[in-house]
Amino acid sequence: MGNLLAYSGTATKIRGMRRKLLTAKDFQHLASLTSVSDAIGFLKTKSAYAGIFANSNENSLHRGEIEKMLTNAIYTDFQSIYRFATIHQRKILDL
């Protein structure tokens, strides 16, 4: 029972973060968009991505820059989970 309680907080945090990610329907809509600026505009409406693109002009971003921003967001999410985790959980998460 102790192990279950030890991981429940972290699992709840991850579920909360996951809830903000794109759904299958969102991916279909994103794939139907015809321009990069439309795609960024759509992502700005989603809470998980709004902060990433908040200070960006979607008309001037290049695909490489967007990929870099999204990759950095993955590291930021991992860092958030890592900081929330206990010392024992951090040992498991160490790369």
TrEMBL record:
Keyword Nucleotidyltransferase among UniProt keywords: no
Molecular function GO labels: proton-transporting ATPase activity, rotational mechanism
Keywords for this protein: Ion transport, Transport
Gene3D superfamilies (alphabetical): ATP synthase (C/AC39) subunit, domain 3
Cited Pfam families: vATP-synt_AC39
Keyword match Ion transport: yes
Name of the protein: ATPase C ( ) subunit
